[in-house]
Amino acid sequence: xxxxxxxxxxxxxxxxxxxxxxxxxxxxxxxxxxxxxxxxxxxxxxxxxxxxxxxxxxxxxxxxxxxxxxxxxxxxxxxxxxxxxxxxxxxxxxxxxxxxxxxxxxxxxxxxxxxxxxxxxxxxxxxxxxxxxxxxxxxxxxxxxxxxxxxxxxxxxxxxxxxxxxxxxxxxxxxxxxxxxxxxxxxxxxxxxxxxxxxxxxxxxxxxxxxxxxxxxxxxxxxxxxxxxxxxxxxxxxxxxxxxxxxxxxxxxxxxxxxxxxxxxxxxxxxxxxxxxxxxxxxxxxxxxxxxxxxxxxxxxxxxxxxxxxxxxxxxxxxxxxxxxxxxxxxxxxxxxxxxxxxxxxxxxxxxxxxxxxxxxxxxxxxxxxxxxxxxxxxxxxxxxxxxxxxxxxxxxxxxxxxxxxxxxxxxxxxxxxxxxxxxxxxxxxxxxxxxxxxxxxxxxxxxxxxxxxxxxxxxxxxxxxxxxxxxxxxxxxxxxxxxxxxxxxxxxxxxxxxxxxxxxxxxxxxxxxxxxxxxxxxxxxxxxxxxxxxxxxxxxxxxxxxx
Length: 548
Fold this sequence. Notes:
The chain is an alpha+beta fold and 548 residues long. The chain is built from 18 helices and 25 strands.
C-alpha cells in the first residue's frame, strides 16, 4: 500500500463556515482534523458575505420568544423542492433542522457569539411555514487583532467595517429617516473608536469567520493554506485521503475517518459555467471568492458523485462602474421610484423578491426576448434619497454618466433610446407602474405585499413602502447582469452529508457540504444566510458522522 506524506483522522477541504464548524466539531470529538485551504487566505466565500445563517427554530428564537417549530421549518422548505428530488430528501431536510440546536450549542460553548437579525424575515414569509420575524442569525462584531499573526491570513469581507448585517437596512435609509442617520453616526463612532484604540473591528462575514478561526486556533487545529485539492486518495473503494499541492509540493494526506469537501462551487471557472449554465454567462459577474474554481466538484464527479442543480447559482445582480469596480445591486431594486425591465421595456419580476429569484427571472425572460443586461430604470428622487451600490444618496456622479456606466435623460423616451430599450414599451410600463404607486397595489407582481418585500424599502413612502412613481426628471438607468455570490449545484448528499452516486449509493468515506453540494432548497434562496446555515449544519453532521 502506498505511504502517505502525512496522516490525520479527518481532512476538511475548504475554510468557509462549514469547513471551520466541521474542524472544530471533529477536534472536540477527539479526532485529529486537518483543514486545508487552497488560497493563502482563510474564510472562503463565507467571509466575503453578510455572515448570516438561516436556521429555523434556532435557540436564539426560543430564548427571545419568537414562535417557530421543527414542523414549520420543514413545511416551509417543502415549498421549494420537488417531491422526489434526490438531492433534497425529507430525511436530509429533517437532519438539517434537527442538528441546528446541537451545532449552535457546540459553537457557543467554545465562545461563539451569535445574535438574531431582528426583522430579517424569510424571503417568502407569506408561503406555508414562512416566518415573518425571521430565522436569520449572525455573529457579534469581532476585533480581528485577537487573531495575532493569523489576522493577515483572514480574507477581508466585502464591506470591512464594524457594521452588523442586520443594521444595513436601517443604514440604507439615511437619506429619508432619522433612524438611518443615527445608524450611520453609530457606525462612524465605532470606526473612530476602533482607530483610537488600535482595534480592527469587523462585522458580517469577517466577524463570523474571524470568531471561528480564533476558536480553531485555540483548539490547536492544524490548518494549511496554499493547499489545493488535486484528487481523492481512494483505496479499496473507500476515500482514505487526498492528494494536494501544498505550497508547490505534491503530497498525499491520509484521512482515516474520511474527507469532507466544503470548498465552494465553480463560480470562477468559465469553462464549467459555459458547460452547465444558461448563456450568456461570465465568471466576471460573480462576487464569489477567487478560489471558487470548481476543482472540488470535478474531483467528486470523477469519483462517481451524482451532480444536481449545476445550472443554478446564488444569483445576485451585478453593476459595473468606473475603474472596473462592480457592485451587488439588491436593496436598490426594492426602493421606490425604480423598476427592472427587459429590452422591450417590460417588467419581468417582483423586484423586491429574493435576489436569486430575480436572476432566474432575467434568464427566463432572456430565453424569449433580450433581457441581459436588464435595466434598472429610476427617476431623480431615487438617486437623491437612496444608496446605489456603495454610493451615498445625493447627486449622480458625473463619471458614471460620462463613462456610460449609467444612462441619463430628461425624458423616458430619450432614456430608452440611449439604453436600446423600446421607448413605447417603457413608457407604457412606467405609466402602468405609476398607477400602482397611487393605489399601493402592484397588480402585476405583488411588490411590497410581504414583510420581506418591505425589509429594504422606504418606510416613509405611503401607501406602499416599495412603490414610488417614476415621474421626476432626470431619469436614469443602470445595466444589470445576472451575477452571483457563488454557484449552488454540486454533489448530491444524504442526511449524513455523505456523497451519493446517481443511484443513491454512498461513496464510502466522502462527505460534502456548502456550495460544492447541491442546494437543500433546490433553485431557491429561501432566507438570508441559507447557504451558510446549511453548510454549517452539514459540516457539523459530517464531523459527527466521521467519529462513528
